[in-house]
Amino acid sequence: MTTPAEAFAPAKVNLTLHVTGRRDDGYHLLDSLVMFADIGDRVTVRPADEISLSVTGPFAEGVPNDARNLCWRAAQAFGAPVAITLDKQLPAAAGVGGGSSDAAAVLRAMEAAFGRPAPVDPLTLGADVPVCTVAHAAHMAGIGERVLPLTMAPIPAVLVNPGVSVATPEVFAALASPDNAPMTPWPEGGGTAATLRWLATQRNDLQAPAIACAPVIAEVLDALKGADLARMSGSGATCFGLFEDAAAAEACAAELSAAHPGWWVRATTLR
Ligand code: ATP
């Protein structure tokens, strides 16, 4: 490797998240339709004598720059020393898979830089890392290891984070029942309207427990009530509003940004 390599780490959005059981080892079984935004973090890897990490960008504060960071662990797992730069554009501990998407991006960048596939099972880095290596619409199941890429119509969306971070283990601890119904079959190859109709019949089982941990999430969902569908992603606190029309998503984002200057609000397209 002689030149730097860059990779984009898109925000991951769980359009549905059904918690369908719990294994004896404590891992939760999930059934989730995942799509990715056109906004996200950016990672760069450069040749170096040892692994290092520099975190920049609007959400750099509080993000670890050592082996606690999934970028670092991805480089370690790849087995080559690189200097990593992480431009943190996504809020952390926000339910949009920041760390997982960053780890997958480091693996992609290192594969490009070293010209060989990553010799690592992405699941060993985290439950969301396998789906983040796909980085476009997919059905995720099991504890995250089963990933089936899907062809879905792109969906205009608004992502909103109210600035509170939510710890995933706390949300799972507040989950009343870990044994809920799986998703019903989604409309394969349908348009955006058909997908939205189907999504309205599905759930995020972590939404109620996350609201119990961070009541402001209910305010965010209320602020998104003009969307065709509003729901929380992952274990929160980021919520999304979905729209059939990109102009409506842009208008909603402009309105919410003006009304809530402290919130992180972005219009995007999910793919
Ligand atoms: P998910 O949607 O997969 O549950 P999340 O978006 O809720 O993930 P992350 O942004 O991955 O959560 O952050 C969770 C914790 O992981 C943070 O509190 C942080 O300490 C740690 N962390 C490790 N690597 C990273 C990273 N690259 N970016 C942000 N946080 C990271």
TrEMBL record:
One of the protein's GO biological processes: isopentenyl diphosphate biosynthetic process, methylerythritol 4-phosphate pathway
This entry's Gene Ontology molecular function terms read: 4-(cytidine 5'-diphospho)-2-C-methyl-D-erythritol kinase activity; ATP binding
Residues the record lists as binding ATP:
P91, A92, A93, A94, G95, V96, G97, G98, G99, S100, S101
Superkingdom is Bacteria
Q: Which Pfam families match?
A: GHMP_kinases_C (PF08544), GHMP_kinases_N (PF00288)
Q: Which UniProt keywords apply?
A: ATP-binding, Isoprene biosynthesis, Kinase, Nucleotide-binding, Transferase
Q: What class of enzyme is it?
A: transferase
Specify the GHMP kinase N-terminal domain's residue ranges: 69-120
The active site of this protein is located at K12, D128
Enzyme Commission number(s) from the entry: 2.7.1.148
Task: Give the reaction(s) catalysed.
Answer: 4-CDP-2-C-methyl-D-erythritol + ATP = 4-CDP-2-C-methyl-D-erythritol 2-phosphate + ADP + H(+)
Has UniProt tagged this entry with the keyword Transferase? yes
Which pathway does it operate in? Isoprenoid biosynthesis; isopentenyl diphosphate biosynthesis via DXP pathway; isopentenyl diphosphate from 1-deoxy-D-xylulose 5-phosphate: step 3/6
| UniProt-listed Gene3D superfamilies | 3.30.230.10, GHMP kinase, C-terminal domain
Domain GHMP kinase C-terminal residues, every copy:
202-259
Q: Which InterPro entries match?
A: GHMP_kinase_C_dom, GHMP_kinase_C_sf, GHMP_kinase_N_dom, IspE, Ribosomal_Su5_D2-typ_SF, Ribsml_uS5_D2-typ_fold_subgr
What is the similarity comment for this entry? Belongs to the GHMP kinase family. IspE subfamily.
* Record function comment: Catalyzes the phosphorylation of the position 2 hydroxy group of 4-diphosphocytidyl-2C-methyl-D-erythritol.
Q: What is this protein called?
A: 4-diphosphocytidyl-2-C-methyl-D-erythritol kinase
Species per Swiss-Prot/TrEMBL record: Pseudoponticoccus marisrubri
